[in-house]
Amino acid sequence: MNASGQPHSQQAKSADSRALKGQRGLRRVLNATRYSIDGLRAAWQNEDAFRQELVLAAIMIPVAVLLPVTLLEKLALISVVVLVLIVELLNTSLEAAIDRDSLEINPLGKRAKDYASAAVMLSLLLAGGTWMAILVARFVA
User: Fold this and answer.
1) Mean pLDDT, the chain, as a whole number?
2) Residue range of the domain that includes 133
3) From 71's CA, which of 42, 50, 98, 100 has a CA 20 to 30 Å away?
4) Residue 47 annotated in active site
């Protein structure tokens, strides 16, 4: 028995992620949706960069919808903003996985984190460049 009164084998079974695998149909979709919402909530609660980017997205996406540009330009403006959020979530997940194993600075772990950080920077540059190109072409040129 463990401290919670469960047999050790029962505790191990409930903590085993294999119990979550193998779901099918609507149950699988509902579980995946719940996990995704949990991930967004955790990113909001724990990651300053994600919060900042999400606040900017909440401003920029409605602006993109309201701008007098073509449908494809709207789609490009919105897509690059969403891409920044996606890359930030991937960066955050990689950092969490590396930090889970050890908080010591390992050269390979540092390199992986640097790669992920560079990916975020590139997505931000792409977003900024796309917004600038469309806005300049539409309203300045």
Assistant:
1) 89
2) 47-141
3) 50
4) no
